Amino acid sequence: MASTDIVYEQVHFRHDPKWSVRLRSAEGGGLLFCVACAIEMMETEEMPSVRKCFALSSISGFLKSSAEALRELFRQDHRVTLHFITTLLGMLQTQEDPVTVEKVDQVLVQLLLEFHNELPFHFVLDEVHKQLSGQLSGKRLLPTFSFLGNLVKTVPNVAHSFITQYGPLLDHLCSALAYPDEALKTSVVHVWLQLMQMSGDAGAQYLPIATRDRLCTLLLQTFSNASSAQLIKNCAGLLWQLVKYEEAVSVLMSSSGGPLMCDADEDVLTNNSPSLIQDQEQQPTDHSLLPLLLKKLLLSGDESLQVTSAKCIAAILVHSPSQYCALCIKADLPGFLFDRLASSSSEMLLWSIYSCLVLLTEEPLFFSQCHSVYGIESLVRSLKEALQLSNLEAPKQGFLLLTEILERQPPGVHLFPSASGFVAVSEAVKAGVSSSCLLVAAQAVKAATALFRLNHQSRPVQYQQLEELVEAISSRFPELILTSPSLRRSMGNKRSSDSSSQTFRSKGFLLQALICFQAACRLAEECASEPALMKNPFTAPYKHSGAQDSLESVCQCLLRCCDSVWIPAVLRTCDGPPSAQILESLYSILCSQFVLLPSLMPQFAKKLVSSGFYRLAVEHKALLCSGNRNPNLNPACCGFLQKLSMCLLFQSDPPCGSSHDFDEVETLLQCSLPALRCHLSDWPSLLCEYQEPRAVQYCLVMMLYLALKQGDRLLPDQAVFSSVVVLLQSVQEQGDCVLPRSVLRSALYLLAVTQDRSPSLDGAHLNYVSKALSSCQSFASLYSHHPALLHFIWRYPELAQKYGALVLELWLAKKSQTGARQDTQSDVNTESQTQQQKQNQEPDWETSELLALMEKHPNVMLTLLDMVVGGQAPVAEHVLHVLKVLLLGQREFATDLCTSLRPALLQALQRISVDNVANGPGQGHAAAAVSVLLSNRGLMDQLQTVVSSSSTPSPPPPSCAPLALLCCSHLLLSSLITLQRVHSTQVHKSIIWSLDTAVHRLFCQKRNTDNLLLVSYLRMLQALLDADLASPVVCLSTGPGLVGPRPLAPEDGALYPLGSTGAQCLLITLSGLLMQKHELLLRTSVNCLNSLLGFLKRKNPDLAKQAVCQPWSQFLLYCNFSSGEKCLLHPALLRLITLLLQYGSTAVLWEPDLLHVIDTVERSGIKELNHEAARALRSLLAQVQSSVPLPAEDHKLRVRKLLESLGPQTSAESCSVSSVLNVGDVSLCMSEFSLKTP
């Protein structure tokens, strides 16, 4: 038999061979193993320990390599197996050799592990219990406790049965903790540790309450007195297992850890009853021992113990923060935890300490004792270290702690009194935001949100750091995955689970970032409200404007990020189901922009509307806020819509009404928007329904108007048009009060802009619109500068009659304001342009719109021309500009349009020119008007065409221009001749006019010629005679009938191109016309005679005297004197007598002619004379005094008294005539026909 066989040679021959088997050892080779020999070897005291140890090692090897063969061997008799186990258990207490004891422990554990389904471990526990109950010393029991620990750790289900079924054995374990030997305590604590670990999460809950409480108390005592590293480690491990249970924590925290109670005798296990600890009373919790022990662990140099301590603290606080936080804080645990943060880079330790401190921050005492102030620097330093670790759970928990501290810190205690502290924490937060892990970044963003509080800002406020934080957070947006998973799958992304997770995290980050930006905006508003915080006092004054470290720079950064980053990111999320929280934050941020940078909001508001934000906000309200859902989103949407609307309303051009109107609209929106929770598709029916109050309907009108002004059509044009009309009808039919002015203005704008795609208004609906407009006292307050409004008013004659002139005047007034600003900006460029360049320029859009309106509605021209005379100077100038564009032919007009406009156009131009002459040559407006007209070749060509059509002597050809057109042309030319002479204006093209034809018509055809046409001929001849028949405006042609054959006689040459014959014919014609009773013709004839006599006197004075001495003059006076006193005092007759006296006529005698006039005046009285007659009489009396010898002194006295009585009544101002006389289709300015007096 080989010496390596496991047999006992002296007794082996007695054993039944069935208990022997040849097995392969772990090292290889076959060995004979006899179970009976092995038992006897272990029971024999004389057997050397070395032999026993070898045998045990071999058995251990067999269990590893030939477990099945051993299992068959032991199955032969169950009693043998139990006897073998009992023998081994006994050896635990009898063997002195520690190596042998270790092998016994090893074999026992292996046997029970291999045969746990066949060998009941209850037998083992029972045997152990017997051993512990015997009279053995504590040292003898050390191997047993070690075995128990290994057994519980290795064999399944032992721990659960141990705890639930072996209460007495548990009591022995508790009693063993009272023994002073630390090795024994270490082993016992190890058993308890394995029991807690291996029994599952609910292991401690199965412990009997008394046992659990006793264990907790004894553990604290053992822990407090422990000195060996292993015992401390085991105690810490067991403590960690116990603090997971609330009941155990209650006992642990209530124990003050009194002195260890033990017998003087070393054998204390004989007294295993609970009386060992019965006199350990619970002390007040303020003196709890556990926090002190945990501090001790934190101070140890073992990192694992520090981690365990932190985990225990966290576990304790989790159960009841309100109960235990104060105890831990009073024990100064926060200070020790912060100290560990400052000196550790362990991932697990950092995470554990962060978790503890997060829980401690729930107690106000944490802040009142200034732990946050003292520990913030350590926290910031540790965060920078944590971000370098591979495990990102630690920095995530660290930023959670920072967030809690920042959120809970009392406002009166500043965390960052100096700028350096704030800079350090902001740098740490920025580093966290840049983390590769989005969850860490999201937690850092939460910390930034808390940091954006006014009480955390240092003095001065570090605006640059705030701006950098905002930009750092915004820079993460492009990498966010915000589209819905279904959309990405449709685009070919098959990793749906990963994609969904990424989307979820991205949306979580986005939400937190928006909340952070919201806090940043709120901080900016608070800083703006405190002047001391708006600027850095240490910044030089000249650097304040636009400086990076300024509030303005932060506000601009917020707006820039909002516009370019935040809004696009949120809109990407709207591809799927919208998030109420995300939208709430976005709308709140947008509201803040209107407060922070009001000067930039007009452009921003227009961009928002053009991007569809009216539609978005309304649809989000309808989708997410109906049924009182999402109560925080609704006010956010309402606030945004209100601020957006008011901003657009303030910048409306022209401004929409007075401050009262703005307040009214703001109140309307504030009251109506919260109740507006319907989709856009429901708006038409809402507008058409009768409801009280109408505030919601008015609110819809305002929003439709403001959105449409920026190009966003919220509803189809036809739906808007019909809905507004029905609303106006409903308001009037229900007898409601007048619409608010701003609402009516909006309604008018909507009707105008949507009319092209809508049917025309019928009579009834047009009447409703007209009444609505009439309800407003000032149409100007309803005006919007949009061409559609022009077309809407002029589309319907009823509206054009009332408001056509007003809307044109407002349009031109607005053009005047715009043009003035543009002229101011481009004076230099304008001066350098030539006249030809100006003519070649395209007309501005306002002029083009007017021209388009005139094409469609010719009557517009008539109204415009009326405005030229009666309107303000700037408006009149712009009308002239429109006429210039029209006449220059820059647009093609239909023939019938030109035909209908020519009379009115020429008539109006004539009125302008006459009015300008009356106003005097000093006015720049008159000079500009004359220059425009005379430089306009189109106008001159048109005038040439008209006057040429009537140049044949008789009869008038069929192609002759209409009477009104010919009259206007003559009158306009007469005014242009006069104005050109006054202003010395350059003439680019002259009109050719036949003088002999005009004189022939007056001389031969006056009876067959309309009086108004005669007036126009005489008026033109008057202007030409005043210019000595030589004007650059008109080139006169003559013929032999006037000047005689060539060579011309001296008299004809002097009077060329009129000639002596022409002068004689004209005198005879005038004498005949002076006999007429037609007022205009009488006045024009006297004025023309005045001009003719003046021309003759300048050319040939003798001929002028001869002319007034002709028999016609005496006959003319006789006829007029015979017509009665009324005719005698007519201003024209008085002026005629004056002319005759002035040029030396012998036909006027003192008696009876002049004396008759004086008698008539004295008889009727001076007061009965009108202003013009008084002026004519004064001129006559002055002429009498200077040129008529009076026969008697009393005659001179009478003349002098009449002159004195006329003096105060005949000032030029009182005699001015500025009214307009309408004669058929021709309107005449009466100032043009006033009698000329010296």
UniProtKB/TrEMBL annotation:
Transmembrane segments: none
One record GO biological process: meiosis I
SUPFAM superfamilies: ARM repeat
Protein's UniProt name: Meiosis inhibitor protein 1
Compositionally biased tracts (Polar residues): 821-832
Start and end residues of each stretch annotated as Disordered: 821-846
The organism of origin for this protein: Poecilia mexicana
